[in-house]
Amino acid sequence: MSKLVIVGTVAFDAIETPFGKTDEILGGAATYIGLSASNFHVDSAAVSVVGGDFPQEYLDLLKNRNVNIDGVEIVKDGKTFFWSGKYHNDMNSRDTLATELNVLEHFNPIVPEDYKDSEVVMLGNLHPLVQQGVLDQMTTKPKLAILDTMNFWMDIALDDLLSVIKNVDVITINDEEARQLTGEYSLVVAARKIHDMGPKYVVIKKGEHGALLFHNDNVFYAPALPLEEVFDPTGAGDTFAGGFAGYLAKTGDFSFENMKTAVIYGSTLASFCVEKFGTERMQNLTDKEIYKRLDQFKSLTQFDIELA
Ligand code: AMP
After folding, report:
1. 145 near 123, Cβ under 8 Å?
2. Distance (Å, rounded) from C-alpha 281 to C-alpha 29?
3. Which of 59, 168, 152, 73 is nearest to 111 (CA)?
4. Could you tell which of 49, 50, 83, 153 is best to mutate to test the pocket of ligand 1, judged by most ligand atoms within 8 Å of the CB?
5. 174, 200, 226, 241 — which has fewest CB within 10 A?
């Protein structure tokens, strides 16, 4: 089993969907990634920053799921990163209403000593210089570095983002962001261009339309499970990334074949995330529930066909 370092935001989110509206609730890329990866029982640590306004009980949620939080700095007189978003009626697209960086503005990540030799590094969504800062602290080169990002960083820190992208093995990105990053509409062409930027593996997330995994000329597609209840897609992308990274860390097999299974785990975990607001559904997820849904996933996608 490999060790896993997770970097990303730990945040307050205010979310509006066609089904309701929340005040400031727990959110952040590292939170969703950590909760998702914790289902694989790997030795993992989160690296992030919060302000003095952040409730300890939120941090304890990660700690109780065995995610080490020694690398989550608390800036006592600072305010926690805040994000607010509103989903359109299709729930597949959203507008960001506010992004307040607050303590993230002057954040220097510190990877706990015991995790500097981790085999897997999951660079969740935040400033690309912070993502690079984490890579720079690793004392042994990780066997797998995965990066997730979003349009916000493409808009304000594109050069830094392109530099860190060069240094990772896998990128997970959504379809619109892949188009923005490459200027290409076709996701196949966009994936090829992203390959050329550095990552050997490109995962393009398409929300309720599933996810694509590209490696050289190979493509694998996993649909998203059709769900009866979708309340809040926030964190689905991060939950996917956490499941993907967690499964790969658990198995220690970073081949394309095994990444296909990692995509299935990522999609399965993301399918739970969207069923309730914020992190609620991810807080007490059980292995039994996950296996049941994996089974549904299998029957959804398996078929026999005779080719003459
Ligand atoms: P997702 O829905 O998977 O794209 O992730 C939503 C989470 O990303 C929310 O919990 C936010 O707190 C967090 N988030 C939103 N904007 C940013 C940003 N610019 N950088 C890092 N995290 C962000």
Report:
1. yes
2. 15
3. 73
4. 83
5. 226
DSSP secondary structure letter of residue 226: P
> From the CA of 12, how far away is ligand 1's center (Å)?
10
In one letter, which amino acid is 25? I
Residue 305 neighbours by CB distance under 10 Å: 4
Confirm whether pTM is higher than 0.90: yes
- As a whole number of angstroms, the distance between CA 241 and CA 265 comes to 10
Residue length, the chain? 308
SS3 203: strand
Helix, strand, coil share (%) of the chain residues, nearest 5: 40, 25, 35
- Residues 94, 85: contact at Cβ < 8 Å? yes
CB atoms within 10 A of CB 161: 21
Alpha carbon distance 121, 138 (integer Å): 9
- Please check whether residue 244 is in contact with residue 281, taking contact to mean a CB–CB distance below 8 angstroms: no
Q: Which two tokens stand for residue 94?
A: 């959203």
pLDDT in tens, 170-222: 999 999 999 999 999 999 999 999 999 999 999 999 988 999 999 999 999 99
Phi, psi for 41 (deg, rounded to 5)? 55, 35
Give per-residue pLDDT as tens, 234-253: 999 999 999 999 999 999 99
Residue 209 neighbours by CB distance under 10 Å? 12
**Tokens standing for 236?**
């689905």
Per the listing, tokens 């398409």 go with 206
Which helix (DSSP H) or strand (DSSP E) does residue 300 occupy? Answer: helix 287-301
Task: Tokens 């506010």: give the residue.
Answer: 98
Q: Find out whether the beta carbon of 241 lies less than 6 Å from any atom of ligand 1.
A: no
